Amino acid sequence: MMTSAKDPFADLKDGLPRRKPGEAPALLARKVSKIFGTTKVLDDVSLAVMPGEVHGLLGANGSGKSTFIKTLAGLHDPEPGAELIMYGEAAPLPMPAGGARRRGISFVHQNLALMPSLTVLENMLLNDLAVTQQWNIRWGKARRQVAEIFERFDIHIDPMTLVSDLPQADRALIAICRAFEEVRVTAGEGRGLLILDEPTPFLPKSGVDQLFTLVRAVVAGGASVIFVAHDIDEIREITDRATILRDGRLAGTVVSAEADHERFIELIVGERVTMFQTARGQAPDRPVTASVRKLSADVARDVTFDIREGEVLGLTGLIGSGFDRVPEAIFGALPGSEGSVEIGGKSLAVEAITPARAMAQSIAYLPADRLGKAGVGSLSIAENMALPVMGEFRSLLGMNWPKINAHVSDLGRKYDIRPNRPAQALSSLSGGNAQKVLMAKWLQTAPRLLMLDEPTQGVDVGARQKLFHAIDEASRKGTAVLVASTDAEQLAQICHRVLVFSKGRIVSELTGAAITKDSISEETLRAHAPATDQTQEVA
Amino acid sequence: MTAPDITPPAAAPRWREINWAGLAESYALVAALVVLFCIFAMLLPTTFFTWANVSTMLGSQAVLVFLTLALIIPLTTGDFDLSVAAILTISAMTIAVLNARMGVALPVAILAALCVGAIAGAANAFFILYFRIPSLIVTLGMGTFINGLTLWMSNSATIGGIDFALVMAVVGTRFLGIPLAFYYAILMAAAIWYVFGFTAMGRRLLFVGRGREVARLSGIQVDRVRFASLMASAMIAALAGVLYAGTIGAADPNSGNTFLLPAFAAAFLGATAITPGRFNPVGSVVAVYFIVIGITGLTMLGIQSFVQNLFYGGALVSAVALSQLVRKREEQQVG
Amino acid sequence: MTAPDITPPAAAPRWREINWAGLAESYALVAALVVLFCIFAMLLPTTFFTWANVSTMLGSQAVLVFLTLALIIPLTTGDFDLSVAAILTISAMTIAVLNARMGVALPVAILAALCVGAIAGAANAFFILYFRIPSLIVTLGMGTFINGLTLWMSNSATIGGIDFALVMAVVGTRFLGIPLAFYYAILMAAAIWYVFGFTAMGRRLLFVGRGREVARLSGIQVDRVRFASLMASAMIAALAGVLYAGTIGAADPNSGNTFLLPAFAAAFLGATAITPGRFNPVGSVVAVYFIVIGITGLTMLGIQSFVQNLFYGGALVSAVALSQLVRKREEQQVG
Amino acid sequence: EADLEAARAIVEAHSVLPSFEAPGAPFDAASCMAGKRILSIPTSSAIPFVSGIEEGMVAAAEEVGFEVRTWQNQGQPTQWVQGIEYAISNGYDAVDLMAGIDPNALAPQVAAAKDAGLKVFASHHRDVTDETAEPNVDVSLPLSFSRVGEIIAAWIVTKTEGDANVLVIGSDDVPPSQPYWKSFEAKLAELCPDCKATYYNVPVAEWATKIQTTTQSALLQDPSINYLFPIYDSMSQFMLPARAITGRMDLPIASFNGTPFIIDMIRNGDVEMDVGESLGWIARSSLDAYMRDLCEVGDVPDELYIPFYIFDAANAETAGVPAELDKGYGDAHVGGFRALWGLE
Ligand SMILES: Nc1ncnc2c1ncn2[C@@H]1O[C@H](COP(=O)(O)OP(=O)(O)OP(=O)(O)O)[C@@H](O)[C@H]1O
Ligand SMILES: Nc1ncnc2c1ncn2[C@@H]1O[C@H](COP(=O)(O)OP(=O)(O)OP(=O)(O)O)[C@@H](O)[C@H]1O
Ligand SMILES: [Mg+2]
Ligand SMILES: [Mg+2]
């Protein structure tokens, strides 16, 4: 199974790493396979996590990471033959409902597993109430407990608010804090397994650092952590070892400190990847596509900037700093916004823009919430993709479906959508592939202004390069691209210019060669430093 | 509705190949209809299996087909319309009151009935869209309210004596031996089939039903689409009322309401056929006639009327259960 | 973990303060009930505003309260149960057939009625959970099927002569002047209130209704919870049938079905009160009596019966519309 | 061989305007009824036939000088329960269960009313041949539905000259349906041994959805059917489309109730005959029986005194154009009852 000849654990007869002689792994999963319909999503995957270990789990989109985790959670039944051994004791597979919790495993699922229409308090109690044998609930006690937990984690959220009223970052905090608390309470001394499926995308940098501190504290106490991420730097920073999945198969397990960035990429993608890098420098001095003037939306205040044809302009800042509100407001998707946007020689008042009007001005917007706002999971790839261009496929007899399907499958080839089956439901694609579909949905309209919110969130390195190429191609054809993202590395790769936000305002601008991952992170944090004064000012 | 080569996801290994499971699923209800027909044809060769009977069955259910078609439009945009039966009733009653009692000319009376339908639809849409109340609640309340209006208009009485021209235009005239009402229903179904499957409007309806927010951010004016669908539903229900008045030449304030549950049953049963998982007009028509064949056959066999209820309920549940077996019992979003 | 830049959401400035808008929303329906009561009390001081009338109103609608309570359980888990009224009817009819016609002892007959309810609930759950058919379709079909059975059992006739002991236990005995039936309804509502609000089971019901997938991920045995809720609904509906038989001392195969829409209306109306946005038993009770006060007052004023429909429909829509105004017309997920 | 003679005699007896025959000895209603109050609970106020009777009772009571009040309802048994309890707690002297409420189906409330000293009346709710005991009812006025069955049987035999194959549609959930149908069947067999009749049951709740299909199926199955008999005339409207769709517009329809829009249909030629009963007459003869009981003057009838009158093409216009409730029966009952009650 091990790919490397100089496997550091090759000396172990049973293939299992041991830190202390005779110590059983916290989790040993063997021969886990899972078939959805006709696709083998997991193929004979085995994984061992030692007590006190942070184990990374990586892989391209759709490689089966979340499926593996959901199998441990008892949501999916693995194919027969799978085995699960925890601390030397056989555990049943398929996992019975609530079984994971009883065995001291707790999760932060990729979709956070929160119920938006319920209160924070109820969500905090969710896992406990799901399996408790206890009959009644003492709300007063529960609330005091949750308040106490929040205090310990230094979270300032009213337990009685609805989750739907909270920003994504807060939701992530709740899910994370719930999982940490749960593993503390349910696992025995020196035991427990915390599984984090991509917890970081929604977190600000400071939040990621806090998370890592917590993770270290947890493993110091003897518990183990499985950590899923696409950010190789994060993986190298926090994990002891990492397992890489490729197309549902085990691609290898490496000691994180010993593998370099390229090695990871090679394992994930299966080949060497040339990282996309746009030609730096000022955007070609072309006409201004859009001028945004004194735009205020939600927390964003008095935002003013121009964007030129063919320019890729990044907007960034800490989560909650309002940079991601800008594209939403320009597209007319955020009620109560003010300001004006001049595009195509017309000046539009922001409060009067609706998505339909924005589209009429050839503006396109791809929201971050993939299946909630950007595409409909229960409809097919073809239907999702064809939505903005239906008019072009009208024939005398109405819409020409064969032509639409041909068009969609061409786009699928162009953007490397896997599987490229126009009739397949969008929800059955992995996150990255779904993102490619939705990007293609808008790129085919050749918009004058393309606005992307976290376009590569949850997208693997390989797919990411394809998306970057697509963005680059569009910009070369004259499309102005506005990218809102917290991912500094990505912005550094693709942007001509980056605007950094703090407390709703643009606080600095980076151009050309000044844009690097480090400079962006630095500006973001520096802008944030004198926080207290600015809070007053904004309030 | 999707084009023929769009097949359901799970069962499509390669999407140009013939997908037998998909076909079986799509045409199971049609097959069941044929089998049921054949069974009764064999049991009752001289009465059931006659052109007279077939044309009668076809001609007599146009009202139910219309009402089912009225339902599937808002169901596609994710709204319930429980007021369609009440609208049918008030529309028929409007014609009766205006034409038979007050002597207003038939075309004017029909126009008035359609206006009443439009007002009802607009009222539904107002409460649903302006106040953001779930459609189920609004149309439940509105249906009851409209029933009250119908009782008031009619003084709770049946009003007969509607201009015979209407009856002639609905069931009195035949083409190929089948009353015209049938052709109206087929035309309406064909129109909706075309709109659902081959127009941008149809896509918009579907997207609004499946993902409001996605639709909005794709530039679809969601409220306008929902308004249109609620209006269309009310107007088609009002047309069903015109047909109903034409079928019986009279209007009474209660009987129309009993069509509500059969229409819902047919809409959901129809969503298991042709393009499974989506409310579709062809499936609705098949569903209505499937049930009619069963009920007619049972009646002709002289079986007691309670058996018809058993058949109705049993057929609905077991047809859907069978279609779920074909899909390996996977949960479906119907919409 | 720190999130220094995250300030508490705007909606809740400080979470121990009294939230007037919230209170207004929660108790608007209660206030409307009181106002309506006062209006009729002033208009009809000698007939409406008497203890005899109040106790009659309280006692005679226990059946509707039960049926509404039966509905809100599956509504909370995200399932519709359109078969409750049919279960009520067959349960009452089972008692009438066994006890009045076949002379079976009353307790046995009641037990049999509850068994019939349990079987119906299990059948609903089987089709919904095993075949993964939407509950709306299953219970629509099952309701029709059960109606057929009721017609068959009863030969379509009303059967009177149920053991007077049942009547005594339901409406014949009074406590503080109110028939016992009222207390049963209140007890049932209190039990559900406790389960919904203060037990882990109640939260599981809610979790399952608000997010199946998340519930499953959290280790809730979703199917088991849904099964329990469908069974509970059928059993409470069967109990409602027992009460109904006890209220009128007889059973007929039709009238029970007319409770379906009022019960739905009360469930949704009730979801605007007490804990707005959630189906809740206290709200349901308030909603039932709000409607009963209106209808009784109108009847006593001798107003024509169609006005009852207008009141029913109008009250439902306008009460929900008002509650939406309080919430600034934001779309709500009810569940 | 058909006994056309006998059949014709029956038909003729009910084709002349009804004359008044005093159902008992005269009495002074005004004095003994003064201050008395009756609450009348109809099966549903939304049925015009029923509300017509209610209006007649209220008006007649006013003439006499006491109060009859209608409990408006929509046919819900729980509303009837409320009505009875209202009567009990508001000092009424009697409750009247009108036109279809089976007192045995409200046994607890009826018993409670009795216990509270109220009289309980029921009228027009079942057939006279129905032997079901009604232990708690002071006055029970069943209607002779079976007589109606006989009249219609005679009519059909007369019209078909002894060659009838009748399609009968009834609703077994309406209690008089069975005795009514049985008497029809018996009389038909008696008058015309070769005639044939087939009965189909369609519950009231399914009239709109099932009468039409049932009729169609029956007609297609047995093309020799030459007469349609919906036992309640409001069913006719659902049979008309069946007749049209199966191309049997020639089929005559005979029925019972005298509902105005059916009489309109007679005028238009869609329906052949309808046996009617005067609502005013029902109202007065019910009141007469109730007053006899309340005044304890004896002679309380055990059947609703009501003459049946045949409407056909010849006299349909006498019911008004368009037809009205309670028109066309003459007014023998108005003067007759006034005299009987000592109001003249
Ligand atoms: N319920 C399901 N039904 C059918 N296919 C599924 C289902 N869930 C996941 N899949 C498929 O299984 C594959 C693996 O998905 P999974 O979510 O495990 O990927 P992942 O590694 O977590 O990817 P990502 O990095 O995008 O989160 C994908 O191809 C996905 O489309
Ligand atoms: N169903 C519920 N969902 C969410 N929160 C609730 C619910 N019921 C009560 N609460 C909240 O919990 C808080 C405390 O409730 P409770 O009345 O049980 O307090 P308590 O008497 O202090 O409890 P205990 O006796 O357990 O200490 C209340 O402020 C209330 O807002
Ligand atoms: Mg994943
Ligand atoms: Mg991912």
Structural commentary:
The complex is a heterotetramer, with one copy of chain A (539 residues), two copies of chain B (335 residues) and one copy of chain D (344 residues). Chain A is 34% helix and 24% strand. Chain A has helices spanning 65-73, 99-102, 120-131, 139-152, 168-186, 205-220, 232-238, 261-269, 325-330, 355-360, 370-374, 381-386, 401-414, 431-443, 461-476, 488-494, 517-528, 531-538; strands at 27-36, 39-49, 54-59, 83-86, 89-91, 105-108, 193-197, 224-228, 241-246, 249-255, 288-297, 300-308, 312-317, 338-343, 346-349, 363-366, 394-395, 398-399, 449-453, 480-484, 497-502, 505-511. In chain A, a hairpin with a 2-residue loop joins strand 21 (497-502) and strand 22 (505-511). In chain A, helix 16 crosses helix 17 (517-528). Chain A is globular. Chain B has a single domain, classed as ABC transporter involved in vitamin B12 uptake, BtuC, CATH 1.10.3470. Chain B has 14 helices and two strands; from the N terminus they run αααααααββααααααα. Chain B is globular. With 344 residues, chain D is α/β, with parallel strands linked by helices. Chain D is built from twelve helices and eleven strands. Chain D has helices at 4-13, 29-33, 48-64, 77-89, 107-115, 145-160, 177-191, 207-221, 236-245, 260-268, 279-295, 332-340, and strands spanning 37-42, 67-70, 94-98, 119-127, 139-143, 165-170, 196-201, 227-230, 254-257, 273-277, 308-312. Chain D has a five-stranded parallel beta sheet with strand order 2-1-3-4-5, sandwiched between helices. In chain D, strands 7-6-8 form a three-stranded parallel beta sheet, sandwiched between helices. The radius of gyration of chain D is 20 Å and the shape is globular. Classes of the chains: A alpha/beta (539), B mainly alpha (335), D alpha/beta (344). Chains in contact: A-B, A-C, B-C, B-D, C-D. Chains B and C meet through helix 6, helix 12 and helix 14 of B and helix 6, helix 12 and helix 14 of C. The site of one magnesium ion has 4 residues of chain A, from helix 1. Chains B, C: One of its GO terms (molecular function) is transmembrane transporter activity. Chains B, C: It is found in: Cell membrane.
Helix content of chain A: 25-40%
What order do the SSEs of chain B take from the amino end to the carboxyl end, as H and E?
HHHHHHHEEHHHHHHH
Number of domains of chain A: 3
Radius of gyration of chain A: 24 Å
**Class by helix and strand content of chain B?**
mainly alpha
